[in-house]
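Our preliminary data section would be incomplete without showing what the modeling component actually yields. Below, a chain of 336 amino acids is followed by its predicted structure, encoded as tokens that our downstream tools consume directly.
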Amino acid sequence: MIKTVVGSYPVVIKEPENFLEKIKDKLGMFDRYKYAIEKAVIDQLNAGIDVLSDGQVRGDMVEIFVSNLYGFEGKRVVNKIEHTKPITLKDIKFANAILNKNNKNNKNNTIKNNRINKSNSYKSIKGILTGPCTIASSIRVESYYSDNKDESLIYDLANALKKEAEAIQDYVSMIQIDEPILSTGMYELDTARRAIKRITENLKVPVAMHVCGNVANIFEELNTFNVDILDHEFASNRKNLDILEFIDKKVGFGCINTKLKSVESVDGIKDLLNEGLEILKNNNSFMGLNGDIINKLNSHVIIDPDCGMRLLPLDVAYNKLKNMVIASEEFENEVK
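Predicted structure:
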């Protein structure tokens, strides 16, 4: 099964150290976040993650986007919202440069050893967008739109995010849209569905939608969204396990509780995976797939943490990912 992350990772900022870096800093050319991206990517690689993020290190999930969209001053809306330049592309390209070096080394090792194993498998980067409803819920509307629930605001955000998705899609293996606000009932799901469709309708890569919280009461509507993967919390929201019997799309199975600053045991994660599998066996769309149970899992389930890991201690975040990968691989072997 593919192992991925929801997005954010603890931020390790590097201050300028040598003379050249200090000169660059004075000229506004030194990037304190470059090391944070590199650290996030390398840690994910070392933990065994397959589809990585750039760590989302430049701010919280809303700040990253509103600070780069026209129409905002801080988190205040002062004009019509528009996309004027790629927002996440530079960091995605940098993360890919780190990956390309890793993939090249793995290819050389594979040729040298004349064999292929999981440690030599190629990795990729995912693009991550904060969804229009979640952005709308987190800003202050001072001009142009009536309030945070104005459909014109949500659709303008969707149009802007559509341009961002199209700008990054050639550099990522998948795109994830984060819409945690949908589990609160604050926004109409019909409005959210239309907004997501605007973003995704012409994309060439698979799209996941991450909705954390309890989604037991809205999963039927989420099943109708124009996305390929529905990603939810199952470690911290065990009630969500019930939706596995009915979900029609691929499942992003959150199996690490990112609210806890303790590291789950491998056996504990495997227990949750087994519990999820037993429920999936009652899902007609899952059991109707061709092939044995491992092929069904590989084509239907993606493993990841419940949510982002930005607020966790660095060592805790890394060891959570490492145990998640170990548990999922042991789980696969035991199912075989």
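Residues 110-120 have pLDDT under 50 and may be disordered. DSSP finds twelve helices and eleven strands in the chain. Preliminary results of this kind motivate Aim 1 of the renewal.
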